[in-house]
Structure to design on (675 residues):
């Protein structure tokens, strides 16, 4: 007999107790849903974290002078003391096909003061034209507008504005140690405030055009501390960084091209930890499901002891009995898989495209220094869908082995005689 | 208008006091007495002077000429006379607060607590060094660790260990004092792991303003041996006629 015939027999046997079959199949289907959903959600959280860590402020790749990290010295500019041709550097970097945005940055520690209040802060010099395409934190200012170069204008974090008791339009004094040893100081007008949700940034970052910052700290126009680069996908950042390093270092620039995977190794480790959990989740869910299936199959074979006894008495081999039971389990597995996929895939498509708001479950939270929105965002992982499907079928079959073996060993004479 | 002479004195006095903290409960009477004397070397009820501060770093060298006033340990005012670009820049210390006046923007800003460990005017002194001297005396236990001849000079060496409740950034401070005239020679500041963090040297001991004092002090960070800040007193007078009201924000802002 072909396996199709065996399956058909198995399918028909399932029909003896449609309710019991459906309930068992639903159990397996829910297990399938649980695995696919949990893995998708965990990956959604990971993706959100990586995107925020790289997209909110920093960018997927950072190019620095090789001695810039970790001290972040004011003097460690790209190209050393003489600086570099910034425009040319930006062009070279953006010529790489994987690069979608690039922006120069200058950093300096400083004081921002208004009246009696003074905040110690990080002054971040940006290019107001280029920066918004790279980092998201300036996309939606909580108030005001971006600063215009050459007009001593400044953006500060919402929390800093609160501490300094200033609002858009107010003047603040900015003081920063200059590269020549002088104490750079000037008046700046606040043109807006931003909110990242990361308190250390909202409290301590002030953003201004990098030309203005260079003037304040007496840094030559060719001297920048960082070129931030954004790639289309965070996961190609590493390869892109290596390619850019191979391009820039032969040009005589002593730079370090670091992708977020280099800068945030703890996040990479977290991602691989989450990945390794996928198998554990699959294992746990289906081991639980296995006992449910085994129970059903034991009942299904026990109530048919006489039937099996007759078949054995008529000359059916025990192996065939085993095959009948296993095919019944396989049919059950296929039914469950169809049910599971039928429930799961539409929900996954829905939640992937329109993540439901789950702020009733948890509010905005920060992990690894990045902000997480409270949405039920799920990521597709087709290989997990397939693995979970195979695991479901294997579960159904494994669960049927013991009932099948028992059915094959039924003693025909004793059973039929009613003992 | 007369340019007010300034205040290296204040800083020196402040630093010396910090380095040579006064007697504490566990301090032996001898140590207490010595330190008291050393303490008095640079402390007048009030002082006024002019000093040059030379800062040498890996990236730049500069010299500031400053005029300074002080009253007790709670008040001091330092005003930069040159270079011209920074003339008028001034620092006011009143109680534990520090205000910086910036003539370019004509504003005084208060240094936040979080910046007290930051450099003062680009030097190797911190803002804390300027205000902490009075507390240091109360904050440390002092013991004599050496009493004898070193390099032909009879000296004492002391170890200052912060009292448990003291808000002090150092693990301990060692210093050496010349027995002949109670002049401090050096002080070594150690961090909480016992690593040397910075060293202060005093030299050029001579009469200034009627007192025998070290006219030169040099601060040298341990992690950057090629860098240093040297303060040289050119003029110094003690017990001048000055009131606490002198140390006001209005005075801070007056250019001359």
């Amino acid at each position: 007999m072909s396996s199709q015939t065996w399956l058909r027999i198995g399918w028909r046997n399932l029909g003896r107790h449609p309710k019991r079959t459906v309930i068992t199949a639903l159990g397996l289907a829910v297990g399938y849903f649980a695995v696919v959903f949990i893995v998708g959600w965990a990956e959604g959280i990971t993706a959100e974290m990586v995107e925020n860590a790289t997209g909110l402020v920093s960018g997927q790749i950072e190019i620095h002078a090789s001695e810039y990290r970790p001290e972040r010295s004011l003097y460690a500019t790209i190209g050393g003391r003489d600086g570099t041709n910034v425009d040319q550097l930006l062009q070279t970097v953006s010529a790489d096909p994987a690069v979608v945005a690039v922006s120069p940055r200058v950093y300096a520690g400083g004081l921002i003061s208004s009246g009696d209040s003074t905040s110690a802060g990080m002054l971040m010099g940006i290019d107001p034209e280029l920066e918004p395409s790279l980092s998201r934190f300036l996309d939606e200012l909580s108030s005001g507008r971006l600063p215009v170069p050459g007009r001593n204008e400044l953006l500060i974090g919402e929390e800093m504005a609160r501490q300094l008791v200033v609002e858009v339009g107010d003047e603040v004094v900015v003081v920063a140690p200059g590269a020549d040893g002088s104490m750079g100081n000037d008046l700046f007008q606040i043109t807006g405030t931003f909110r990242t949700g990361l308190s250390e940034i909202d409290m301590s970052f002030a953003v201004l055009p990098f030309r203005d910052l260079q003037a304040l700290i007496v840094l030559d126009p060719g001297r920048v501390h960082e070129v931030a680069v954004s790639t289309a996908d965070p996961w190609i950042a590493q390869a892109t960084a290596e390619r850019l390093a191979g391009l820039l270092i032969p040009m005589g620039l002593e730079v370090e091209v670091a992708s977020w995977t280099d800068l945030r190794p703890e996040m990479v480790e977290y991602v691989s930890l989450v990945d390794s959990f996928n198998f554990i989740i699959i294992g746990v869910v289906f081991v639980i499901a296995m006992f449910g299936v085994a129970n059903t199959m034991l009942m299904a074979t026990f109530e048919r002891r006489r039937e099996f006894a007759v078949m054995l008495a008529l000359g059916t081999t025990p192996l065939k009995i085993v095959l009948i039971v296993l095919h019944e389990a396989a049919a059950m597995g296929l039914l469950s898989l169809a049910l599971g996929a039928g429930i799961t895939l539409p929900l996954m498509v829905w939640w992937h495209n329109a993540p439901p708001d789950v702020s009733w479950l948890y509010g905005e939270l920060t992990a690894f220094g990045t902000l997480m929105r409270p949405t039920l965002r799920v990521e597709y992982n087709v290989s997990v869908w397939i693995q979970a499907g195979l695991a479901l079928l294997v579960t159904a079959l494994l669960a049927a082995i013991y009932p099948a073996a028992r059915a094959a060993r039924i003693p025909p004479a004793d059973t039929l005689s009613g003992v | 208008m007369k340019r007010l002479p300034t205040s290296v004195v204040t800083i020196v006095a402040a630093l010396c006091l910090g380095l040579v903290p006064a007697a504490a409960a566990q301090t032996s009477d001898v140590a207490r007495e010595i330190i008291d004397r050393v303490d008095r070397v640079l402390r007048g009820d009030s002082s006024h002077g002019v000093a040059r501060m030379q800062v040498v770093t890996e990236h730049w060298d500069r010299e500031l000429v400053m005029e300074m006033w002080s009253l007790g340990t709670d008040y001091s005012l330092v005003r930069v006379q040159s270079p011209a670009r920074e003339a008028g820049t001034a620092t006011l210390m009143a109680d534990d607060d520090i205000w910086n006046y910036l003539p370019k923007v004509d504003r005084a800003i208060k240094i936040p607590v979080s910046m007290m460990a930051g450099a003062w005017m680009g030097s190797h002194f911190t803002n804390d060094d300027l205000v902490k001297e009075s507390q240091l005396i109360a904050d440390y236990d002092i013991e004599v660790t050496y009493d004898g001849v070193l390099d032909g000079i009879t000296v004492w060496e002391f170890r200052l260990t912060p009292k448990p409740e003291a808000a002090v950034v150092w693990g301990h401070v060692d210093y050496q004092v010349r027995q002949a005239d109670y002049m401090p020679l050096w002080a070594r500041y150690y961090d909480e792991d016992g690593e040397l963090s910075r060293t202060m040297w005093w030299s050029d001991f001579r009469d200034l303003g009627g007192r025998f004092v070290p006219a030169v002090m040099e601060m040298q960070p341990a992690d950057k041996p090629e860098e240093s800040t040297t303060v040289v007193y050119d003029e110094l007078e003690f017990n001048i006629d000055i009131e606490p009201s002198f140390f006001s924000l209005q005075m801070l802002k007056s250019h001359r």
Remarks:
- The mean pLDDT of chain A is 90.
- The interface with chain B takes residues 75, 111, 113, 116-120, 173, 175, 177, 179-183, 185-187 of chain A (CB under 8 Å).
